Amino acid sequence: xxxxxxxxxxxxRDEFMAGVLAPAGPIRGYLWNKMFRRRVIxxxxxxxxEDLDAMEDELFTVRYAIHAERFYFGAxxxxxxxxxxxSLTTSNDTLSLLSQQLSAMRAIxxxxxxxxxxxxxxxxxTRSLEKG
Length: 132
Description:
Layout: E1 9-11, H1 13-21, H2 38-43, H3 56-67, E2 71-73, H4 94-131
Helix pairs in contact: 1-3, 3-4
């Protein structure tokens, strides 16, 4: 069970991102255990990377988290998740899957690095204006 033994709580962006990027745990980058605000998706024109066959959900979740302001961890599943036979998740083609995972991980790293650079620039600009 997702989040078994954990209490529902509000998460900071850093806590949420740490959970998304963790190699194990109840949050991870999956879509099936999250709800998303349409307004955030529409406002920031968030879309899935159609070039990826694996981890496209994790990349989307990271991009969403950069723009969202609040995160709530319910500690319980809100809907049922089914795995269909023949999907990439159930495939034995581990080399293809590994290549896709590496591509997604590079895109996630690039997304996070770009956000940190923009925030740092914004902080430096604000500090310069404050010094006058």
